[in-house]
Amino acid sequence: MRKVGLKVAAAGIALAVATLVGGCTSIRDHRGYMIDQSLLDSVQPGIDNRMSVEKTLGRPTFESQFGSKDWYYVSQQVKTPPFRKPRTDSQTVLRVRFDAANNVVGVDKRGAEQVARIDPDGHVTPTLGRHRNLFEDLFGNIGAVGAGGMGQTPQGPGPNGS
């Protein structure tokens, strides 16, 4: 009887460990356009135009605002480790270039090598004025309103004192 209890306890511990380890895996997620290589290969420069590209690939993620009106399709694989912020694992950007007559000139495919990594500065922007803490902000004005001239006539330059 004692051996059965030990086996059940060992099985319970193994199940608990498997559950804890399973809960610490990264979550993988897809964001943006789902790239289908066979559809992408069917877009031919000189043959297709904006309408045929839209029917084949769908609406773009965004359209360029300056210069030629190129279409961009963005696809990302995102990985979220436990208790951390999501990170882009891989990224693909498809660019469909058009000429003035809205015909396809070319299709470019780029990866994450074109992404600029920005590390923002964590310092506080300096401003003019006093640096006050929370308590000074909450209680700093108590007694300041009307404290200097309660019941007295204002004297000196100003809207009511001149």
Give the SSE map.
Blueprint: H1 2-22, E1 27-32, H2 37-42, H3 50-57, E2 62-63, E3 71-80, E4 87-98, E5 104-110, H4 134-139
Antiparallel strand pairs: 1-3, 2-3, 3-4, 4-5
Q: Tell me, what's the shape?
A: flat
What is the CATH domain class of the domain at 26-113?
Answer: Alpha Beta
CATH topology heading of the domain at 26-113: Beta-lactamase Inhibitory Protein, Chain:B, domain 1
- Give the amount of beta strand, in percent: 15-25%
Task: Output the structural class.
Answer: alpha+beta
The number of helical runs is 4
Helix amount: 25-40%
Average pLDDT confidence is 80
Total number of strands: 5
Give the second-level CATH assignment, the architecture of the domain at 26-113.
2-Layer Sandwich
Q: What multimeric state do the chains show?
A: single chain
Tell me the span between the first and last alpha carbons: 101 Å
Report the uncertain regions: none
Q: SSE string, helix = H, strand = E?
A: HEHHEEEEH
Architecture overview:
The chain has 162 residues and is α+β, with helices and mostly antiparallel strands. The chain has a domain at 26-113: 2-Layer Sandwich (Beta-lactamase Inhibitory Protein, Chain:B, domain 1), CATH 3.30.1450. It has helices spanning 2-22, 37-42, 50-57, 134-139, and strands at 27-32, 62-63, 71-80, 87-98, 104-110. A hairpin with a 5-residue loop joins β4 and β5. It is flat, with a radius of gyration of 32 Å. Strands 1, 2, 3, 4 and 5 form a 5-stranded antiparallel β-sheet that branches. The chain is 25% helix and 23% strand.
